[in-house]
Amino acid sequence: MNWRSLPVLFLGLGALWIGTHSATCDKDGACDEILKAYQTEQIMRSILDQLPDVGSGVTSPAQLMDPQLKKFYQDLQEDIAEKYHGDSSVEISFLDAEDPFAGGDPSQLVAAFRLKNDIKNMVVAEALLHVAISLPSFEQHTVHKVHVQVYEKKTDMSLGDLVTTDTFSIKGSKRLSIQLPGDAVKRWFTDGKIGGLFVSAIVKDHNAAVHPQQSNSKVDNMILQVVTRDPRYGPTKPSRTRRSASPVCSESDPSQGCCLYNLEISFEKVGWGWVLAPHRYNAFMCKGDCKLNAHHFLSASSHSTVMREFSKKTYEKDLRHLGFCCHPVDFDYIPIVYMNRDGKTVVKRIEGMVARRCACS
């Protein structure tokens, strides 16, 4: 991905977002074009500010486009969006397993993880180890019961304590998600006494768990998912209740006035291959003639105040262009899983990505 291509890509999404989130104020569309240009610039800057690690550098297309890996992250993103929606105190990290010997000792099966953030003063709310299980071709169509054990490996690579154990029934090669105790995960990243993890998943006397010494494929690599919470926010629990967008109109049942409509945004269509999940989402849009229902939707928001002042300065010599524009005044965020400039998988809460309520100003 080239940094110089980003403004063009952002412009493409900005045009989708703003072009449909505002409505024509009068027949010549002057207000519509001004709002579109002004908001596009603001949204481009906002997204760049929220994704500071997307920039120069090349990310392998094979890593970005692998359908198996994308499907895995899309499923995780959906669960994260539901489970932790509204909980601003959590931070979610995906850590790729590394070979601490960099290929120097393939006999040592160990998965090492590096956490960028300091979690000494954080609470580990949830931790999942995602492990690829590889079965030979002649075993792909048989159901197997797999007993999985996760062990610590000390810094001298001797086997440490048993962390957790679980049993799964699988058919064919797949990725298993194993719940890990949060206190153990926190200890790994704070006391410096653990060199990594060893996973045993025995199928017919063979360890089917794929360690980084056995495969260079990102699809098969172990992934540690860590959810941390800032204790200063108190013991808040994740919420599964999504704020509904209301009222919502549709093309089959339209409103002539200012109203909220569905708008599907596809990251692939705008060329954002570095976004792993979601594949697409509903951004919603505001459109309609404010002359018909402006008295119901007159906005006293800070956005409206700014835009009125902006319009006065822009059209101070030609006030006939002024009118009420239909635009969103309430927004929601979505969590995005993306590949940064270093090829690392990152989860980021992107604000202002979903319109929830319309108003006229």
Key terms:
single chain, 361 residues, alpha+beta, Cystine Knot Cytokines, subunit B, Jelly Rolls, 2 domains, four-stranded antiparallel sheet, 16 strands, elongated, signal, glycoprotein, TGFb_CS, growth factor activity, TGF-b_C
Q: How is this structure best summarized?
A:
The protein has helices at 6-21, 30-50, 61-65, 67-83, 182-188, 290-297, 302-314; strands at 90-96, 123-133, 143-154, 159-171, 174-179, 194-203, 206-207, 223-229, 248-249, 259-261, 264-266, 275-277, 280-282, 285-287, 326-339, 345-360. It is built from seven helices and 16 strands. This is TGF-beta family profile domain-containing protein.
Report on the architecture of this protein.
This protein folds into two domains: 3-56 and 242-301 and 309-360, Ribbon (Cystine Knot Cytokines, subunit B), CATH 2.10.90.10; 87-233, Jelly Rolls (Sandwich). With 361 residues, it is of the alpha+beta class. Helix content is 24%, strand content 32%. Mean pLDDT is 76; it is low at 1-30, 56-63, 237-243 and 318-322. It has helices at residues 6-21, 30-50, 61-65, 67-83, 182-188, 290-297, 302-314, and strands at 90-96, 123-133, 143-154, 159-171, 174-179, 194-203, 206-207, 223-229, 248-249, 259-261, 264-266, 275-277, 280-282, 285-287, 326-339, 345-360. It is built from seven helices and 16 strands. The strands form five sheets. The protein has a four-stranded antiparallel β-sheet with strand order 1-8-2-5, with helices on one face. The longest helix has 21 residues, at 30-50. Helix 1 crosses helix 2 (30-50).
